[in-house]
TrEMBL record:
Record Pfam families: cNMP_binding (PF00027)
Record-annotated Cyclic nucleotide-binding domain positions: 7-76
Protein name in UniProt: Cyclic nucleotide-binding domain-containing protein
Species assigned in the record: Streptomyces lycii
């Protein structure tokens, strides 16, 4: 039996198959720039193996790594929310194998199947919240006068 994690675990079984029908395998060698902040978000990935760092541009400095994703994680959420522009950048920190999805095809599937669309939207909203908290904490650790401290 295969254990499902991440976005696949958030979807009912029949909906997982519908989504995975749109997937195709991709691989990224280490140090491959997968997408850049501000670029067009026209696809997303579910990481199978390897790790990907997420970064944010900091004016006058090098991009700051804010999180590292691994197996089972959703890479990319900006494809779901207009204007469909990446809010972070991503780079392969190790060789990566992933399932890639065309964003327009998945958005159309969500319109055709509102139960799938709702489950996917709720999962993505949770991922957005987590990434915003991670970004805040990391930037405060790097550039704040006293680090991030406790969240209130």
């Amino acid at each position: 039996m295969t254990t499902r994690t991440g976005v696949l675990a958030a979807l009912p079984a029949g909906h997982r198959e519908k989504l995975m029908h749109l997937a195709h395998d991709v691989a990224f060698p280490i140090a491959t720039r997968i997408f850049d902040e501000g670029g067009r978000a026209d696809r997303f990935w579910i990481i199978r193996t390897g790790s990907v760092t997420l970064d944010v541009r900091v004016p006058g400095r090098c991009a700051a790594t804010v999180e590292t994703l691994g197996g089972g994680d959703l890479l990319g959420w900006s494809w779901l929310i207009p204007p469909h522009r990446w809010h972070l950048g991503a780079e392969a920190a190790s060789p990566v194998r992933a399932e890639e999805f065309d964003a327009a095809a998945v958005r159309a599937l969500c319109v055709d199947d509102p139960v799938l669309g709702q489950a996917l939207a709720v999962f993505v909203a949770g991922a957005v919240g987590h990434r915003l908290r991670s970004t805040r904490t990391r930037l405060l650790d790097l550039y704040g006068p006293y680090g991030s401290g406790p969240l209130r």
